[in-house]
Specification:
It is a single chain. This protein has about 240 residues and is α/β, with parallel strands linked by helices. It has one domain: Ribonuclease Z/Hydroxyacylglutathione hydrolase-like (Metallo-beta-lactamase, Chain A). It is about 25% helix and about 30% strand. The strands form four sheets. Strands 1-2-3-4-5-8 form a six-stranded mixed sheet. Strands 9-10-11-12-15-16 form a six-stranded mixed sheet, with no helix packed on it. The protein has a two-stranded antiparallel sheet with strand order 6-7. Strand 2 and strand 3 form a beta hairpin. Helix 5 (about 195-210) packs antiparallel against helix 6. The longest helix is centred in the C-terminal third of the chain and has 16 residues, at about 225-240. It starts with 6 loop residues before the first strand and ends with a helix.
């Protein structure tokens, strides 16, 4: 599915897989936001080919966090030349290949092939992929190393207006009308490092900092329009349910 002029959904719920994966189409290569499950690599590559990106190298993989359904295919793409980018709070998950069953509420291991990240960052910073600029903002709570990535789709620029602002939110919140009447779904609380105190601070920061035109989350559907209001609704929902 093409979302904006430069961004495509190439794996996730629409493909009967966990974890949405987004492709940013550059002039010479492709950047991925998250990599889905370890079994998602073939679907991602098939989707890239379907959208005319099959011959373009995947040069960057920007991870929103280190859970199995978002970093599971990271090693696969790294072996093919992609540089793996992750926040320092979740870098250990890549090195350890997720976490074993005794650390989940299900008694089921959430593991995947290990790899060493190419770039580990701590504080907010701007990352580059070709002519695109992605602002990486730490949003801890769901995991210690959860991150939002914000970018302008520069291919949508005109002489009068900038391109739309895109916000990739990982699992901090997502959108699914089948799961919730108001369609905002808050993150899974079962991660070993889930921290509601950090999450509250992160959501309040997001309310003040982000005014996106498009929100692309780690699960569920894209949301177009009213981005800051939706972030505020997610924060209010969290405060009402978990404070």
């Amino acid at each position: 599915m093409q979302v904006t002029k430069s961004i495509y959904i190439v794996s996730g719920a629409a493909y009967d897989l966990l974890g949405n994966v987004y492709a940013i189409r550059g002039e010479k290569g492709v950047a991925l936001i998250d990599s889905g499950e370890s079994i998602a690599a073939d679907v991602i590559e098939e989707s890239l080919a379907r959208w005319g990106m099959g011959e373009m190298p995947v040069t960057h993989l920007f991870l929103t966090h280190g859970h199995m359904d978002h970093a599971g295919s990271a090693a696969h793409f790294q072996k093919k030349g992609a540089k793996i980018v992750i926040h320092e709070g979740d870098a250990h998950l890549l090195r350890e290949g997720g976490f074993p069953g005794d650390l989940t509420p299900y008694g089921e291991g959430w593991t995947y092939p290990v790899c060493e990240p190419d770039l580990v960052f701590g504080e907010e910073q701007t990352l580059e992929f070709e002519d695109f600029r992605l602002k990486a903002v730490p949003i801890p709570g769901h995991t210690d190393g959860s991150v939002f990535y914000e970018m302008e789709d520069i291919r949508e620029r005109t002489d009068e207006t900038p391109g739309r602002t895109i916000l990739f939110t990982g699992d901090t919140f997502s959108f699914d009308r089948e799961r919730d009447n108001d369609y905002i779904v808050l993150c899974w609380k079962g991660s070993p490092d889930y921290d509601p105190v950090k999450l509250e601070k992160s959501l309040l920061l997001a309310c003040q900092k982000f005014y996106p035109d498009v929100i692309l989350s780690g699960h569920g559907m894209p949301l177009i329009g009213n981005g800051n209001e939706v972030i505020r609704r997610a924060a209010r929902k969290f405060l009402e349910m978990y404070r």
